[in-house]
């Protein structure tokens, strides 16, 4: 929060939290609002806001967006994806179906935590779309090149499949994503499970998604201790 925007409201109450040096003073009636999307698979809606601040939180319950809502949102945020938005949403819904019904919920931290059934949300879909439009791909017409779908697959596997704790589940979801995108037979070679792709060039070194620029100056003093 920006202190300048909320300063007129910080007057009376003083909610505090352990580990904080000072409290934040707020006026009577001041509330923090958070939107919460719920579904019949989510039973975390009974949980309060944020422990010490739960008395100041007001949650606005929203139903899950339907397909038409998602199409409108994706096309509104990223108009260039209009020709492939339906395929992207098909993939997103298929992944959520696999996670919810076949795997019993998304395992984000190696275990079922706090009784919350994790599923991918609209935020994950929009994150995927943002990565896609960040690359120079031609979405006009019906002829998106296979290399374009390969990139879309890479990003989907990174966002959706990589979040699963089991290697078998990751591979299964990755294969399903590739099948929907028409890349089923290439899935195993395009998404290695043991190590990232490494490319060494004259100007930089690429390790998976990370690019390291080369430098003429040594980065480590070979005579000193390594730390």
UniProtKB/TrEMBL annotation:
GO annotation terms (biological process): ribosomal large subunit assembly; ribosomal large subunit export from nucleus
Keywords: ATP-binding, Nucleotide-binding
Coiled coil: none
Every Midasin AAA lid domain range: 69-183
InterPro entries referenced in this protein's UniProt entry, alphabetically: AAA_lid_7 (IPR040848)
GO molecular function, one term: ATP binding
GO cellular component: nucleus; preribosome, large subunit precursor
Name this protein carries in UniProt: Midasin AAA lid domain-containing protein
Organism listed in the record: Aegilops tauschii subsp. strangulata (Goatgrass)
């Amino acid at each position: 929060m920006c202190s300048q925007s909320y300063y007129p409201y910080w007057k009376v109450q003083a909610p505090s939290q352990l580990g904080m040096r000072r409290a934040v003073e707020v006026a009577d009636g001041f509330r923090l609002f958070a939107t919460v999307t719920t579904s019949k698979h989510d039973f975390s809606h009974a949980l309060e806001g944020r422990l010490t601040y739960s008395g100041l939180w007001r949650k606005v319950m929203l139903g899950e967006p339907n397909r038409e809502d998602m199409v409108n949102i994706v096309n509104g945020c990223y108009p260039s994806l209009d020709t492939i938005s339906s395929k992207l949403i098909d993939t997103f819904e298929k992944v959520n179906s696999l996670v919810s019904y076949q795997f019993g919920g998304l395992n984000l931290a190696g275990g079922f935590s706090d009784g919350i059934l994790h599923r991918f949300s609209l935020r994950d879909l929009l994150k995927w779309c943002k990565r896609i439009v960040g690359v120079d791909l031609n979405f006009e017409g019906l002829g998106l090149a296979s290399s374009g779908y390969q990139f879309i697959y890479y990003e989907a596997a990174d966002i959706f499949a990589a979040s699963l704790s089991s290697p078998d589940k990751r591979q299964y979801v990755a294969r399903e994503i590739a099948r929907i995108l028409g890349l089923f037979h290439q899935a195993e070679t395009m998404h290695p499970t043991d190590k990232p792709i490494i490319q060494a060039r004259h100007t930089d070194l690429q390790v998976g998604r990370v690019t390291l620029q080369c430098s003429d100056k040594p980065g480590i003093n070979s005579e000193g201790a390594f730390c």
